[in-house]
Specification:
The chain has 415 residues and is mainly α. It has one domain. The protein contains 18 helices and no strands.
Amino acid sequence: MKDVFIIAFSAYGGPNMHLALYQKRLVEEKKYLTTEQLMEYFSLCQMLPGPSSTQTLMSIGYQFGGRVLAFLTLLVWVLPAFILLTITAIFIGAFQDQALGYLRFVQPVAVGFVIVAGVKMVKKSVKNRQGYLLATMAFVVTALLRYPLDTWVNMKTPWMFPIVLVTAGLFSFFDFKGTVQKYKPIKIKFPWRSLVTFVVIFILAGVLGKVSSNPLVILFENCYRFGTIVFGGGNVLIPMMLEQFTNHIPNGASEPFMTTGEFLNGVGLVQAIPGPIFTIASFTGATAMKGYGIMSQVAGSFVSTLGIFLPGALLIFFVYPIWSKIKMHPIVVKALPGVIAASSGLVLAAAYLMLLPVGFNWVIPGDYFYTNLDMVAPVNIVQIAIIAVCSVLLFKTKIKSPWYIIVAILCGVLF
């Protein structure tokens, strides 16, 4: 637990950086496992929905102490970011006007983070023409068919994301061109309890989220659904949250949980705080409850964090004991490349949708059709310049992500 706690306070930069920290601390220094074991766990978690670096760490905990240690590992890993992001969201909610002024330069920096993440994910994950086709399909459906082309085709639904991922997986499975090792079916004793719990919670949360007007219930359902369908890490989570929390009005409410600006502040701040990107749910949960008091904000952060991490934990409890038996199954081998390629397209779609409100000026806020552009000054030159500079620096330098946010906040305070 001590080693996990130390890693949790230095874990900036997303799954790849987290993996490097695991290698240094857990493999090279402590020799808890070999590099080969670490990479196999990481490969397993790349094939599951949920936070891959978190699930990798849980798998290591499972190896040494079963479910109890795996759960404690998750708790220690998430706790620092949960606390810091919850406190930050409460502070911003209490001093909203002043805080948002200080954070105005965080939003374009956050857009730069997502642009670079999307481009890097495409370069790393897409290997052939089929992959580029699926990434493009995901971008068109979730970005262009929303703005500006939804005049003709209405794609304003958060369910487009799982539909896109499932379609990409099916396309990849039936059009797979590689080779698959011969799979010999063998008898497996499945840990059904974890899978049944996973499915039952998914169904109950979906039903209650549909009929309930309680914001805590709705937040849990939203986040549990995200944790169930997200492949490719935290950057793929961002477009789903952006769509759900800033464009859809929950039951019993008169407006969405938060504005695009508030959400973008969370995207930027999570880059400055150590831990998994999935802990953005802690920020969004607390922000969504900002009108209900501090205790409700803490509750919103808690249920959102629980919802986003619980599916991945239950899947690890189900899959880890049988991983060696199923990792070469043809369905997994054939479908996964398509899902990952489409996920990279979703990240680019998030960058596009986040760029619209930040980089351009609109006559009616939130209406992102070209006819609604402010023709006197359509482009927000300062914000576009910040996005461009930030993106170039992220590509060309090794400056750690927290420094971008610190500089952005300082500029907001000084200027």
